[in-house]
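Appendix B. One record, verbatim.
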Amino acid sequence: MPEDQAVDHEVEPLADERVLVPVTASELVFEGRVWDVRRETFDLGDGPIVRDFMDHPGAVAVLALDDDDCVFLIRQYRHPVRLRDWEIPAGLLDVPGEDPLEAAKRELAEEGDLEASEWAVLADFLTTPGGSDEALRIYLARGVRPTAHAFVREDEEAHIETRWVPLDECVDAVLARRVQNPSLVIGVLAAETSRARGWRSLGEADAAWPTRSTPRGSQAHRGALADGAPASGAWADGESADAASPDGEPAEGPARA
């Protein structure tokens, strides 16, 4: 900092700002198996702006740490990037009404055959805020032990490889760019930093999660439409509508939550 610049101790803590801008149109342009693509028109004061983005249900991840400060890792194939990458257990919040903490416990059991007695919030992040509304919460799980029964896995998860790796070694792998899964990268760096601070940064397991999107298709987190009318293929005022195809006609098959 330049010497002639005084430190302003009255400045608010560094934090993102929630902004609800007028949304004049919202259209479901692609309905996928897991997430959708939505096109919205909004106004920042200089005229309309149109953006497409992934409409995502959100996700959770678990950094499980044993008594020796080793992290439980899984390696599985990820087709879009053609990698068998190292990750921490994670999964979508795609079960209607499921509490995020319960979803994290489910993912740890399904992907690792593990359960834990101690849970805390380690980190929250937005995966791609310029192109997706996906919010992801990473939990720290301790007091880890095997589940009574092994989980039967399918598809990519049927080929999962597991390993316990010292936290320090995980940090080294991140800094050397040998591992690049975002939940792993953020999780191990957050855990290393929090450990150095006596774990004082951890949040309660049921801490509020304000950046998580409301259920897919909802307008509640994007602001009301300027004319007050429901958008094509969207929900308005918290009430569900039938899933719609890009041309506005009802989509084939059952509507999803």
